[in-house]
Amino acid sequence: MLNTLAGDRQSLADGDLIRELEGLRTDLLAFEDACARWLDPVQPCYRESARNLLHFIAFHRHDHPGLQRQLRERGLSSLEGCDGHLLASLNAVIERLTAAASVRACLPPASPSHGQAVELLQWHCSRLFGLAACGQANAIMVTLPAEAADHPGLIQELVEAGMGVARINCAHDDTRVWQALVTAVRSAAIDSDRPCRVSMDLGGPKLRTGPLPEQPGVVDARPRRDRYGRLLKPAQILAVAGGRQPAGAKPDPEISLLPVLQLPERDQEPGLAPGDRFSGRDASGRMRELTVVEQRADGLLLGCRQHCRFTEGLRFRREGGGAELQVGALPPSPGELLLNSGDVLELTATPGTATPGTAKPGSGTPGRGRHSISCTLPQVFSALRPGQRVLFDDGRIGGVIRAVNAEVVTIEITDAKPRGSRLRADKGINFPDSELQLPALTAKDRQDLAFAAAHADIVNYSFVSRTADVEALQGELEDLGATQLGVVLKIENHQAFTNLPGLLLTAMRRPMPLGVMIARGDLAVECGWEQLAAIQEEILRLCTAAHVPCIWATQVLDEMARHGTPTRAEISDAALGARADALMLNKGPNITATVRTLRHIAAGSLSSQPEHPSHRDRLRSCLNFRRGSEV
Which residues, including other chains, have CB under 8 Å from residue 55's CB and lie 6 or more apart? Predict the structure, then answer.
């Protein structure tokens, strides 16, 4: 009797669960119908992917408390890991649950299945990256340095090591360098019998600081000391007439080259000898003593037991009279502003305007107080409001807007190093709290796009954030007759992240190969470092649902590329990135070895990776998607 009652209760529970799942399925299909405005223009090759993306959005717009637990308790799929085939998996769960409860269910046709979802993603990857030909689990994209244009052997090594996509950044260099790089990549692919695509980054409307006046040059000579500050070796300075570089010699990193107006003649009376001393004040105003080490054919080698800074015009006189050393002209140093917390920085609309800081009243500290520098895109000023945050140089310096008008944005510096942070020209500016209405496609981008359409396989679209940006690029490509050029949407600000579903669906209206890049550098600055992990996971899941290839970019094995040895955190990051369809490396002196290492990490990690981690929260980009209006 007890077993009968328990069975009846289980049947009732199964019936309630079936009705909940059928209601969920009805919601998914109703949302698909309501999104006809988005779905109808989608190309046939993207139709099933777009449908699944809409099902994914509908599912994650609401919480489903207890649903996954109930499904697991019955030995059924909890719908985790089903992002790429959501409706088919939901139908399968309903069918099995219905069969167990002896209830008939009329199931609508579902597409794609799990196998079809995998095939769709692989097909889109092969269209964009050519993975079917090169046979790698993940494509490896490498940013090419400009010097590779004159050293094609480096590109040959990269292709043989496993580079599947060569990236050229249009924000740097010119068409001469780009053409040489493209030619070298094509030649290396033929010689290695390994396909390698060419990808070109459009620069986009990057907000940067304007120019700063150059500062007088400084020669900095430091002695070597042990950990206790005891002298190990004096600073070495080679005084040369006119700053001549010793012919055919590689500069010694431990010797500072100091141009002087005139060197003492060898036969001058009284003659110089090792141990003779010159004394004078250095750029800091402190007395310094320079000791003659030896007279060489290329100059006079001097030693100094203290840290010494030289600027043009300083004089050092020989003790006892006679010879004198006067510092000659030095190459100017790049301009910079030293910003401290509490300083005021004026961001101006007038190109080239910049002033160093003035002292705060009574502080006695030069260089602190009020500064100004120009902005490359002052048209954004109209979108700024007091109280919004400002970040400079990849978030190294932070501030808050205190006042704004068409000509000047007044910013209070709130985040800087204890001894001040240096801000130089051409450094990035981010307004994470502001909705900037900048078109992603600039006049320069249109010129660069013409070159990319003729020579590249893929174009990476920087700072795309609205569906209008995607439509603008599609229009340009159609005018150029480049409708088969692959397009990668770079997600690098909060607006692009929250609008990603609409961006994908708009891009799917054309049959061109499509991909997404998680540009984690700017994305972290815009959205906050603490949010980056969750955001990149959500982008991965959206791309899985849409069967769109995803690129894991920014600082992948960066320490290894620069210095030869990866950190433990980098290894873990690269292994996590293997869930994406491609990983991007930046340039560095050890880039070839880094490509090989990344290929092995990705190959070893792929088999053990889950399809995605468990996230039961509603996804922000799905909540933001509006089915009947512009995103």
Answer: 28, 31, 32, 86, 87, 545
Enumerate the H helices of 2-46 as residue ranges: 2-34, 36-39
Our CA dihedral for 220, 221, 226, 232, rounded to 10 degrees, sits at 180
Identify whether 433 is part of a domain: no
Kindly report the CATH number assigned to the domain that includes residue 572: 3.20.20.60
**Would you call 201 exposed, middle or buried from its count of C-beta atoms within 10 A (0-12, 13-18, 19+)?**
buried
Q: What is the pLDDT of residue 613?
A: 45
- The single-letter DSSP state of residue 467 is H
Which whole-number Å values give the CA distances from 314 to 218, 244, 259, 306, 422, in the listed order?
11, 19, 11, 17, 26
Q: How confident is the model at residue 367 (pLDDT cuts 50, 70, 90)?
A: very low
Say what the alpha-carbon torsion angle 9, 15, 20, 26 is, to the nearest 10 degrees: 180
Residue pair 386/403 in contact by the 8 Å Cβ criterion:
yes
d(CA 258, CA 300): 10
Task: Using the Cα atoms of residue 155, residue 161, residue 164 and residue 170 in order, give the sign of their dihedral.
Answer: negative
Sign for the CA dihedral angle at 258, 259, 264, 265 comes to positive
Same domain, 66 and 200: no
Express each pLDDT in 318-350 by its tens digit: 988 778 899 999 989 888 999 999 999 999 998
Of 404, 427, 450, which residue constitutes the final position of a domain?
427
What's the domain count of the chain?
4
Rounded Cα gap, residues 283 and 218, in angstroms? 8
Q: Judging by beta carbons within 10 Å of its beta carbon (0-12, 13-18, 19+), is residue 593 exposed, middle or buried?
A: middle
What span, in angstroms and rounded, lies between the C-alpha atoms of 613 and 473?
34
Per-residue pLDDT reduced to its tens digit, 46-83 = 999 999 999 999 998 888 888 888 888 888 888 888 89
Per the domain annotation, does 434 fall within a domain? no
Q: How many CB atoms lie within 10 A of CB 185?
A: 27
Between CA 536 and CA 212 the distance in angstroms is: 36
CA angle, 255 then 561 then 461, to 5°: 120
Percent pLDDT > 70 in the chain is 87
Asked if 236 and 255 count as a contact pair (C-beta separation under 8 A), the reply is yes
Does 221 score more than 90 pLDDT?
Answer: yes
129: exposed, middle or buried (Cβ count in 10 Å: 0-12, 13-18, 19+):
buried
Left, alpha or beta for 563 (phi > 0: left; psi -120 to 50: alpha)?
alpha
pTM, entire model? 0.82
Number of other residues whose CB lies within 10 A of the CB of residue 136:
17
Give the separation between CA 329 and CA 334, rounded to whole angstroms. Answer: 16
How far separated are the first and last CA of the chain, in Å rounded? 58
* CA atoms of 568 and 601, how far apart (whole Å): 12
Q: What is the largest CA-CA distance in the chain?
A: 123
Considering only residues 98 and 142, tell me which one the structure prediction assigns the higher pLDDT. Answer: 142
Q: For 258-289, how does the pLDDT look when each residue is reduced to its tens digit (9 = 90+)?
A: 999 888 765 554 568 899 999 999 999 999 99
Half-sphere exposure of 133 (CA within 13 A, CB side): 13
User: Measured between alpha carbons, how far is 196 from 189 in angstroms, rounded to an integer?
Assistant: 6
Q: Containing domain of residue 282, as a range? A: 219-326
CA nearest to 431, candidates 381, 373, 376: 381
Query: What is the pLDDT averaged over residues 128-143?
Result: 77
